[in-house]
Amino acid sequence: MSVITNRVEREAQLATLDPVWARIRAEAQDASLVEPALSAFLLDSILSHNTLEAAVGHRVASRLDHEAVGSHIIAHAFAEAIADQPDIAEAVRADIAAVLDRDPACHRALEPVLYFKGFHAIQSHRLAHWLWASGRRDFALYLQSRASSVFGVDIHPAARIGRGIMFDHATGIVVGETATIGDNVSMLHGVTLGGNGKEEGDRHPKVQRGVLIGAGAKILGNLSIGCCSRVAAGSVVLSDVPADTTVAGVPARVVGKAGCSEPARSMNHLIEGQSPDR
Questions:
Q1: Which residues form the Serine acetyltransferase N-terminal domain (predicted)?
Q2: For the domain 14-136, what is the CATH superfamily, name and number?
Q3: Residue 198 pLDDT level (bands cut at 50, 70, 90)
Q4: Pick from 234, 232, 240, 230: which is nearest to 260 by CA?
């Protein structure tokens, strides 16, 4: 049996077992033909790996690489995390699907894995959170610091984040220690999930599933952002937000319904009744 036949059979089997990874590999192969100058990069980042988890761990580690802690150490820790907590692998795939579904600038599953710092920041946090929960807090804090420097995204390792998360552009996102972010949440650049004052303990926002948070919004204190609600860009939220509503302003107030059943997927930032051309 020829090498080509073996490869075709392996790729067909992979498409059945892990269609996301099969798609990314196929896109990387196509990209290497279109742009031969990136062939070595694509081979190192995607095509030389056996699994999506290994490729993501390698790519994130390569971006976080520093003489103080080399990329091989970070990639090894990511592999340890996946082995100990397989749910991380499922979350990675859900995050890729979220970007493909919600970002009109993303046309291939390959793109967030290789290029999008919001996706990379989330995966860095998934590793840091696992390290934090495993008692390896100095390594977790190192990754937080390094990710903040490289990606411009600062997430405390103790913060809890669900799956299907998209950080669009991501620059300037800050998430505090006791914050939680539910499944299928979309956040734009400049969002802060911060504390209010100097109190200790549970002091950061709890963002429920399906929420859309616009650019530059500041959500401060131990409060709840209800399921499938929207926080308008530039708002300052200081009290609980009901489910299925839109809040806007400084301080934020309810200005209408969310406008759809899944704001985080629609990515529609218009306030109810506002015309798109105004």
A1: 20-124
A2: serine acetyltransferase, domain 1 (1.10.3130.10)
A3: confident
A4: 230
201: tokens are 């303990």
pLDDT digits (tens, 9 = 90+) for 146-161: 999 999 999 999 999 9
Q: What would the two tokens of residue 1 be?
A: 């049996």
Domain boundaries, the chain: 14-136, 176-277
pLDDT score recorded for residue 259: 83
Cα–Cα distance between 67 and 44 in angstroms, integer? 20
Distance CA 213, CA 217 (A): 7
Output the average pLDDT for the chain: 93
Pairing mode, strands 245-248 and 253-257: antiparallel
Interatomic CA distance for residues 100 and 111, integer angstroms: 9
CB atoms under 10 Å from CB of 260, counted, come to: 15
- At 31-42, the pLDDT tens digits run 999 999 999 999
DSSP 44: I
Write the DSSP symbol of residue 241. B
Query: Cis peptide leading into 263, omega within 30 of 0?
Result: no
Domain 176-277 homologous superfamily, CATH: Hexapeptide repeat proteins (2.160.10.10)
pTM: 0.92
